[in-house]
């Protein structure tokens, strides 16, 4: 069946329908990873977005449920150049086509994803529609595309009630803003007892549990829309509990302490982004997924100083908080799959908790 991707600038791509046969409007973003498509599909940070995979062949090793980063996929739609319909891998438990259909996610294959990515890079991230309706009226669709916003998606992707991963080491409170499973798993593998809290949990409840450390997770959407969560993070900042934050958590801590954020032209999404540790000058390859960034032009050094910078575009990739046991990063040190270069940051967090015990 034919399918169409219509962008808000009027560009139309024609391809083949994959997954669910339904019409969606979403923000169109691209990911440059060469592998890990299942982890991309199940990353809650993609809620409210449709993902373009720039690598031309997707699905060749099938679906392995053990590799999922959450219980279900989150993107509104999926866009690929070529979909492998016969996966070859001893761990494969099904095809992407079946996976998309099962979870009611529509997609489109057979389009020039490199040309699409060039448009998004030149004009910036824009909204689009995936439809199988050959009689679409573009003049009616464009206003709908321009009006679309992802809205408040953190509450949608967060866990509904707290749960615990048992461990014999430090007690970590993980605020689930759309957390990938591997964050809690990485802490648990280091011996931590990890209690995962829903995004709207009060700071008082977390502090009352007397954790040795607090982790603020990744997540989707515009950080400035998380107004009530920012207020609670301000209270966590004022506590003396060590805090480590990733991605959205990094942005929310910055907003909670007086810094600002803005939307990037097309964001960073992929497993090959170089970041420089400003304290050592060493460069690490990182996995990233974000469309917003912390402004450092007016950053108060009495509150925080830049700790990491993106080598490609010099945007901020991390902050060290002055006089506090708090550090935050924009990238994903728990990347799976992806580069393990920055996994040492979990060890740094462990040492922070040991020193303050």
From TrEMBL:
<dbReference type="GO" id="GO:0006526">
    <property type="term" value="P:L-arginine biosynthetic process"/>
</dbReference>
<protein>
    <recommendedName>
        <fullName>Carbamoyl phosphate synthase small chain</fullName>
        <ecNumber>6.3.5.5</ecNumber>
    </recommendedName>
</protein>
<feature type="active site" description="Nucleophile">
    <location>
        <position position="247"/>
    </location>
</feature>
<keyword id="KW-0055">Arginine biosynthesis</keyword>
<feature type="binding site">
    <location>
        <position position="221"/>
    </location>
    <ligand>
        <name>L-glutamine</name>
    </ligand>
</feature>
<comment type="function">
    <text>Small subunit of the glutamine-dependent carbamoyl phosphate synthetase (CPSase). CPSase catalyzes the formation of carbamoyl phosphate from the ammonia moiety of glutamine, carbonate, and phosphate donated by ATP, constituting the first step of 2 biosynthetic pathways, one leading to arginine and/or urea and the other to pyrimidine nucleotides. The small subunit (glutamine amidotransferase) binds and cleaves glutamine to supply the large subunit with the substrate ammonia.</text>
</comment>
<keyword id="KW-0028">Amino-acid biosynthesis</keyword>
<keyword id="KW-0067">ATP-binding</keyword>
<feature type="active site">
    <location>
        <position position="332"/>
    </location>
</feature>
<feature type="binding site">
    <location>
        <position position="248"/>
    </location>
    <ligand>
        <name>L-glutamine</name>
    </ligand>
</feature>
<feature type="binding site">
    <location>
        <position position="291"/>
    </location>
    <ligand>
        <name>L-glutamine</name>
    </ligand>
</feature>
<comment type="pathway">
    <text>Amino-acid biosynthesis; L-arginine biosynthesis; carbamoyl phosphate from bicarbonate: step 1/1.</text>
</comment>
<comment type="similarity">
    <text>Belongs to the CarA family.</text>
</comment>
<dbReference type="GO" id="GO:0006541">
    <property type="term" value="P:glutamine metabolic process"/>
</dbReference>
<feature type="domain" description="Carbamoyl-phosphate synthase small subunit N-terminal">
    <location>
        <begin position="1"/>
        <end position="131"/>
    </location>
</feature>
<dbReference type="InterPro" id="IPR050472">
    <property type="entry name" value="Anth_synth/Amidotransfase"/>
</dbReference>
<dbReference type="GO" id="GO:0004088">
    <property type="term" value="F:carbamoyl-phosphate synthase (glutamine-hydrolyzing) activity"/>
</dbReference>
<dbReference type="InterPro" id="IPR017926">
    <property type="entry name" value="GATASE"/>
</dbReference>
<feature type="active site">
    <location>
        <position position="334"/>
    </location>
</feature>
<dbReference type="InterPro" id="IPR029062">
    <property type="entry name" value="Class_I_gatase-like"/>
</dbReference>
<feature type="binding site">
    <location>
        <position position="289"/>
    </location>
    <ligand>
        <name>L-glutamine</name>
    </ligand>
</feature>
<keyword id="KW-0436">Ligase</keyword>
<feature type="region of interest" description="CPSase">
    <location>
        <begin position="1"/>
        <end position="170"/>
    </location>
</feature>
<dbReference type="InterPro" id="IPR002474">
    <property type="entry name" value="CarbamoylP_synth_ssu_N"/>
</dbReference>
<dbReference type="GO" id="GO:0006207">
    <property type="term" value="P:'de novo' pyrimidine nucleobase biosynthetic process"/>
</dbReference>
<feature type="binding site">
    <location>
        <position position="219"/>
    </location>
    <ligand>
        <name>L-glutamine</name>
    </ligand>
</feature>
<dbReference type="InterPro" id="IPR006274">
    <property type="entry name" value="CarbamoylP_synth_ssu"/>
</dbReference>
<comment type="pathway">
    <text>Pyrimidine metabolism; UMP biosynthesis via de novo pathway; (S)-dihydroorotate from bicarbonate: step 1/3.</text>
</comment>
<feature type="binding site">
    <location>
        <position position="45"/>
    </location>
    <ligand>
        <name>L-glutamine</name>
    </ligand>
</feature>
<dbReference type="GO" id="GO:0005524">
    <property type="term" value="F:ATP binding"/>
</dbReference>
<dbReference type="Pfam" id="PF00988">
    <property type="entry name" value="CPSase_sm_chain"/>
</dbReference>
<feature type="binding site">
    <location>
        <position position="251"/>
    </location>
    <ligand>
        <name>L-glutamine</name>
    </ligand>
</feature>
<comment type="subunit">
    <text>Composed of two chains; the small (or glutamine) chain promotes the hydrolysis of glutamine to ammonia, which is used by the large (or ammonia) chain to synthesize carbamoyl phosphate. Tetramer of heterodimers (alpha,beta)4.</text>
</comment>
<keyword id="KW-0547">Nucleotide-binding</keyword>
<dbReference type="Pfam" id="PF00117">
    <property type="entry name" value="GATase"/>
</dbReference>
<keyword id="KW-0665">Pyrimidine biosynthesis</keyword>
<feature type="binding site">
    <location>
        <position position="292"/>
    </location>
    <ligand>
        <name>L-glutamine</name>
    </ligand>
</feature>
<keyword id="KW-0315">Glutamine amidotransferase</keyword>
<dbReference type="InterPro" id="IPR035686">
    <property type="entry name" value="CPSase_GATase1"/>
</dbReference>
<dbReference type="GO" id="GO:0004359">
    <property type="term" value="F:glutaminase activity"/>
</dbReference>
<dbReference type="GO" id="GO:0044205">
    <property type="term" value="P:'de novo' UMP biosynthetic process"/>
</dbReference>
<dbReference type="InterPro" id="IPR036480">
    <property type="entry name" value="CarbP_synth_ssu_N_sf"/>
</dbReference>
């Amino acid at each position: 069946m034919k399918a169409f991707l219509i962008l808000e600038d009027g560009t139309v791509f024609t391809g083949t329908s994959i997954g669910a046969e339904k019409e969606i409007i979403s923000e169109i973003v691209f990911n440059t990873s060469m592998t890990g498509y299942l982890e991309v599909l199940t990353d809650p940070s993609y809620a409210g977005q449709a993902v373009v995979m720039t690598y031309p062949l997707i699905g060749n090793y099938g679906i392995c449920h053990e590799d999922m980063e959450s219980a279900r996929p989150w993107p509104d739609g999926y866009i690929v150049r070529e979909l492998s319909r016969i996966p070859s891998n001893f761990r494969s438990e099904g095809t992407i086509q079946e996976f998309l259909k099962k979870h009611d996610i529509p997609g489109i294959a057979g389009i020039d994803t490199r040309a699409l990515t060039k448009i998004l890079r030149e004009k910036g991230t824009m909204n689009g529609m995936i439809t199988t309706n050959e009689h679409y009226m573009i003049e009616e669709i464009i206003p709908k595309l321009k009006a679309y916003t992802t809205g408040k998606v953190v509450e949608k992707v967060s866990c509904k009630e707290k749960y615990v991963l048992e461990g014999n080491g430090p007690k970590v409170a993980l605020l689930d803003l759309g957390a990938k499973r591997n964050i809690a798993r990485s802490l648990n593998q280091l011996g931590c007892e990890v209690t995962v809290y829903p995004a709207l949990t009060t700071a008082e409840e977390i502090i009352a549990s007397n954790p040795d450390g607090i982790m603020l997770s990744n997540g989707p959407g515009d950080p400035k829309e998380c107004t009530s969560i920012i207020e609670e993070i301000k209270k966590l900042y004022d506590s003396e509990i060590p805090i480590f934050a990733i991605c959205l958590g990094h942005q929310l801590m910055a907003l909670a302490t007086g810094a600002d954020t803005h939307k990037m032209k097309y964001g960073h999404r992929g497993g090959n982004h170089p970041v420089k540790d400003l304290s050592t000058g060493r460069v690490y390859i990182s996995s990233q997924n974000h469309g917003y960034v912390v402004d450092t032009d007016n950053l108060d050094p009495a509150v925080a100083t830049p700790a990491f910078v993106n080598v490609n575009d010099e945007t901020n990739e991390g902050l060290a908080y002055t006089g506090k046991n708090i550090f935050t990063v924009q990238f994903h040190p728990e990347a799976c799959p992806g580069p393990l270069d920055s996994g040492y940051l979990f060890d740094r967090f462990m040492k922070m908790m040991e020193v303050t015990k």
